[in-house]
Amino acid sequence: GLIEATGLSNDSAGRVDVNTSGDLIVTGEIKALGTQDAMVGGTINLLGDRVALIGSAKVDVSGIAGGGEVLIGGNYLGRGPEPNARVSVLGEDVQVSADALSSGDGGRVILWSDEYTNFSGSISAKGSSVGSGGFVETSSKLNLQAFGMVDVSGSINGGTYLLDPNDLDIIAG
After folding, report:
1. What distance in Å separates the CA atoms of residue 66 and residue 35, rounded to the nearest whole number?
2. Are the C-beta atoms of 146 and 163 separated by less than 8 Å?
3. Residue 119: φ, ψ to 5°
4. What was the pLDDT predicted at 9?
5. What is the dihedral of CA 45, 64, 156, 159, to 10 degrees?
6. By CB neighbour count within 10 A (0-12 exposed, 13-18 middle, 19+ buried), where does 160 fall?
7. Cβ–Cβ under 8 Å, residues 134 and 162
8. How far is CA 125 from CA 10, 48, 113, 150, in A?
9. Where are any strands of DSSP class E within the chain?
């Protein structure tokens, strides 16, 4: 399926908020694009006790003038008013995008859990040809398995990729 939030006016992108105390499984597409001139991408929050994006799921908050924001399982470092997931999974074929398409900076993507995060897909928060890369965090308070690809490139400055597990083992592939 497809969920597409287009916003209420021509000057703001849409917003999708899914918040459950149970399990949330996404297998389709969710978009909140900034498609008009000077629009940044929208906001998508996918929150629950266990959150999984699997199969060929796609989440996109890209915008003409900058990327938007995606929160999966919680906010930055598990802080903020949003509830935190115990488990967050971003499967191998899943794509999350918060790119600046014409101007501006890449957006912000957070993948968080309190107990277990498995990141195997791809996340991009690319800046435009006149912008900086965005911010991506894949973290867990206890157990992070990060095998995915992250692109926070930008023509002015590269962005930031934060991995914040309890312990970190770097293993040659």
Report:
1. 10
2. yes
3. -115, 110
4. 67
5. 10
6. middle
7. no
8. 23, 23, 20, 8
9. 2-4, 15-19, 23-26, 29-31, 43-47, 50-53, 58-60, 69-72, 87-90, 95-97, 108-113, 116-119, 122-124, 135-140, 143-146, 149-151, 160-164
In Å, what is the CA distance from 23 to each residue of 88, 111, 153, 159?
10, 16, 33, 31
Span 68-110, pLDDT tens digits: 999 999 999 999 899 999 999 999 999 999 999 999 999 999 9
Mean pLDDT of 51-60: 98
Q: 47-70 burial, b if ≥16 CB within 10 A, otherwise e?
A: bbbbbbbbeebbbbbbbbbbbbbb
Q: What would the two tokens of residue 84 be?
A: 């935190």
| 3-class secondary structure, 11 | coil
Count of C-beta atoms within a 10 Å radius of residue 147? 11
What is the Cα–Cα distance from 169 to 62, expressed in whole angstroms? 32
Q: What's the CA gap between 142 and 73, in Å, rounded?
A: 14
Contact 14, 42 (CB under 8 A): yes
Sheet containing 143-146: give its strands across.
23-26, 50-53, 87-90, 116-119, 143-146
